[in-house]
Design brief:
Elements lengths: L1 H22 L4 H8 L2 H14 L8 H14 L3 H4 L3 H13 L3 H21 L4 H19 L1 H18 L3 H12 L11 H4 L5 H20 L3 H10 L7 H17 L1 H5 L5 H20 L3 H8 L4 H14 L8 H21 L12 H6 L1
Length: about 350
């Protein structure tokens, strides 16, 4: 399991170095880490780790079976309308004579780019990346391939939304919905961040939502209802994952005034914090914890955002002496990774980590 720990410890070490630099009053490291070309190297490494994994992840063999079936189904129009973005990646791989690893690698670009772009636009980017590793990268990115791609697109869109670019968010989110149609559910949050005419924003976002729903989701509603709600599917660990979102949500609402001074699109994040808390209640009310769990995955960026701001929220605003809070956040997520790797019911599907190029050599 050492590759997983290496993935966490490298950004964690840089987060501690970043904290030490800020404690000394030097903000150059954070600025360099945020915009330097080294982040493109992070995108490449993350893409290769996520995309070239071999027989890693709880749904690996399900995806493999679907890819093999795609060889026979690709001639039918209906095949394309079932998450067409992901089907396009499968089609490209099939045309080139490649396998599932190529699909994961191409999809890994969307996932990794979204994660890195989101992290590098936070005040402590290395801390945010370390926070992302235990669950968002290892479990989601390497286990729920299509939803990981969709979440990567959503995170890139959230960066645009933070800069007031409503259209950018909508385009990225619709793109994400072509990988996993459930991303359509996140489109209405664009109206929450509107800074101009909220009525106009809500109107045209509503049009986009209706169009995306009709094209991507409408034909699957019955299947989703029977597959999740009526079948009452249950996900082990769903409550723990929802509580992991609820913790930063509670911190954000508790320290709302401190966050409000520096947080872009604060109204949006406050609403997402409330949604994260509401998901815990919905967990007990819904007949299917799996359905709630899958929707809760799109709220994961809240963890990165809150904990990247937290040292200055709980400590000094200038960053001096806040290393202890950085260490506390890292200790919390190191514990999350340790517990999951050693005690999670389905952790065996991730262990050991196997990298496809090495499988070819050895």
């Amino acid at each position: 399991m050492w590759p997983y720990w290496l993935m966490f410890l490298l950004p964690a070490a840089l987060a501690l170095q970043e904290a030490q630099s800020l404690s000394m009053g030097d903000r150059s490291l954070a600025q360099t880490a945020r915009w330097s070309g080294s982040w493109w190297l992070v995108v490449a490494l993350l893409t290769m780790l996520v995309g070239w994994r071999h027989e890693v992840g709880g749904d690996w063999f399900n995806y493999l079976g679907n890819f093999q079936n795609a060889r026979f189904d690709s001639q039918y129009t209906e095949w394309w309308w079932n998450d067409p973005g992901y089907r396009l990646l499968e089609w490209l791989a099939l045309q080139a004579g490649w396998g599932l690893h190529a699909v994961n690698l191409m999809g890994g670009v969307f996932f990794s780019y979204g994660v890195v772009v989101f992290c590098r636009n936070l005040p402590r980017p290395w801390l945010a990346l370390a926070v992302a590793v235990p669950y968002l990268v290892i479990i989601l990115g390497m286990g729920y391939s299509r939803q990981g791609m969709a979440l990567g697109c959503l995170m890139a869109g959230l960066v645009g939304l933070g800069r007031g670019r409503l259209l950018t968010f909508v385009v990225w989110t619709v793109l994400g919905a072509t990988f996993h149609k459930s991303a359509v559910l996140m489109l209405p949050v664009a109206a929450l961040a509107a800074t101009g005419s909220r009525l106009m924003a809500a109107a045209w976002v509503g049009v986009v939502v209706a169009a995306a729903y009709a094209l991507l989701l409408e034909d699957s509603v019955a299947a989703l209802q029977s597959g999740y709600l009526e079948a009452e599917y249950q996900s082990e660990g769903a409550l723990v994952r929802l509580l992991m979102n609820a913790l930063p949500a509670a911190l954000l609402l508790w320290k709302r005034e401190r966050f409000a001074g520096t947080l872009p699109q604060q109204r949006l994040w406050f609403w997402l914090a409330l949604a994260s808390l509401a998901m815990v209640g919905l967990y007990y009310a819904s007949p299917s914890s799996t359905a709630v769990d899958r929707v809760g995955l799109y709220l994961l960026p809240l963890q990165l955002m809150v904990f990247a701001y937290l040292p200055e929220v709980l400590g000094r605003r200038d960053g001096r002496g806040n290393g202890v809070w950085v260490g506390a956040v890292l200790a919390y997520y190191a514990t999350v990774e340790f517990v999951w790797l050693n005690y999670a019911t389905h952790a065996f599907a991730w262990l050991p980590y196997r990298w496809y190029p090495l499988e070819l050599v050895f």
